[in-house]
Amino acid sequence: MQASIIGAGVAGLTCALELAERGVAVEVLERAASLGAGSCSWFAGGMLAPWCERESSDPLIARLGAESLTWWRERFAATVVNGTLVVAQPRDAAELVQFGRRTAHFEPVGRDAIAALEPDLAGRFERGLYFAQEGHLDPRAALTALAERLEALGVRIRFGVEATAGNMPAGSMLVDCTGLAAAARLHDLRGVKGEMLLLRSKELALSRPVRVLHPRLPLYVVPRAQGHFMVGATMIESDEGAYISARSMLELLSAAYALHPCLGEAQIVEIGTGVRAAFPDNLPRLRREGRTLYVNGLYRHGFLLAPALARRAADMMLHGSQFPEVMGKQPSTEVEGRAISPAAAF
Ligand SMILES: Cc1cc2nc3c(=O)[nH]c(=O)nc-3n(C[C@H](O)[C@H](O)[C@H](O)COP(=O)(O)OP(=O)(O)OC[C@H]3O[C@@H](n4cnc5c(N)ncnc54)[C@H](O)[C@@H]3O)c2cc1C
Questions:
Q1: pTM beyond cutoff 0.90
Q2: 335 CB less than 6 Å from ligand 1?
Q3: What distances in angstroms separate CA 103 from CA 32, 53, 83, 100, 317, one per listed residue?
Q4: 338: helix, coil or strand?
Q5: pLDDT (tens digit, 9 = 90+) per residue, 61-99?
Q6: Minimal CA–CA distance to 319: which of 11, 22, 12, 6?
Q7: What is the 95 CA–ligand 1 centroid distance (Å)?
Q8: What whole-number distance in Å separates Cα of residue 106 and Cα of residue 132?
């Protein structure tokens, strides 16, 4: 069997690897000139937090996410499993109680335990929740490592190739992992803009992602190599990812400052925006249309879910397996009264 994967974001690369590892002849087509350019995946925080995400998502996300965490540890050595620390200012203590009610697999921590976990946060927070089994990774390093693994397996990533209905190889299965670009064919996809900052500070060291709860603006800080910190992320119902608003910039910087004032002196290394693709229920889908399998709707969970979806995509393609929890209505020929034209599919 031959498969062409369209899109070299996290969905495309995990699908490509899962198929290549099972002996399928795979190629990846990516319209951008280089890895990450133009993809939502480049701007992700890289939190692998199945149990924290339970706070605002379906139990399916936690189940698929826990499975993916193992996949990442087996294939990307720099996956860190140091847990997630969730904190709130004393005036937002009710948020912590709510968060605890909606989630599982954590232990409540007090001032001393917080200081033991994150010495630089000593004395800054009275109470928190510690999700010890969660992980994180640097998305850019992870995408690069996946691309290297694919290359070692003989898979070519063809950059600068815009996949269209007219230029797809005959006889090959197509796996469409084009994120929001697929909204032209999957009409119930929408965009959820996310804005982020990359800061650098020599004054702060963190060993794990820290989420700072707030009634209006729950934000997080994820440590990366060499004193870098990803601060994220806004959630704005919009397909437009061209710029960061002044308000979002203020809010992200305020959250960073609330975590530790030394971040007020940090260097702003990068300001980024990505647009997450989401279906109306914010759950991912594998949808089959003719010879195309769409892997999409990863919403705010792309790194958390992509490996589990890639496994299921490969099982569907190779063994005809069915996964009702991620397949939704099959095939989706009409969405909200608008037909998907077969000619529009690859
Ligand atoms: C600020 C922010 C923070 C986030 N934090 C996290 C997090 O901590 N943890 C987590 O799990 N998720 C997180 N996410 C979500 C995650 O980034 C997305 O769910 C994920 O990146 C979606 O990946 P994808 O491969 O589906 O899409 P994309 O990464 O957008 O990849 C699609 C690719 O397809 C290519 N393409 C499109 N059309 C064509 C075509 N016709 N031909 C060829 N190529 C094409 C594009 O160029 C692109 O490279 C975050 C997102 C944002 C914006």
A1: yes
A2: no
A3: 38, 8, 14, 5, 34
A4: strand
A5: 999 999 999 999 999 999 999 999 999 999 999 999 999
A6: 22
A7: 29
A8: 7
Per the CB < 8 A criterion, the answer to whether 277 and 16 are in contact is no
Rounded distance, CA 216 to CA 332, Å? Answer: 36
Quote the ligand 1 centre to 44 CA distance (angstroms).
8
Band of residue 334 on the pLDDT scale cut at 50, 70, 90: very low
> By the 8 A CB rule, do 83 and 234 touch?
no
- Ligand 1, residue 10: give the atom nearest the CA: 25
Measured in Å, residue 106 CA sits from the centre of ligand 1 at 29
Give the model confidence (pLDDT) of 205-251 as tens digits: 999 999 999 988 889 999 999 999 999 999 999 999 999 999 999 99
**How distant, in Å, are the alpha carbons of 177, 213, 324, 340 from that of 185?**
12, 37, 21, 6
- For ligand 1, what atom is nearest to the CA of residue 162? 42
40 Cβ closer than 6 Å to some ligand 1 atom:
yes
Nearest CA to ligand 1 atom 20: 302
From the list 150, 133, 124, 130, the residue with the least C-alpha distance to 35 is 150
CA distance linking residue 42 with residue 315, whole number of Å: 27
State in Å: Cα 113 to ligand 1 middle. 36
Q: Which of 300, 301, 309, 326 to mutate to test the pocket of ligand 1 (most atoms within 8 A of CB)?
A: 300
- Give 251-291 pLDDT, tens digit per residue: 999 999 999 999 999 999 999 999 999 999 999 999 999 99
Q: Using the predicted structure, report yes or no on whether residue 171 has a pLDDT greater than 70.
A: yes
Measured from the Cα of 301, ligand 1's closest atom is 11
Residue whose Cα lies nearest atom 32 of ligand 1: it is: 178
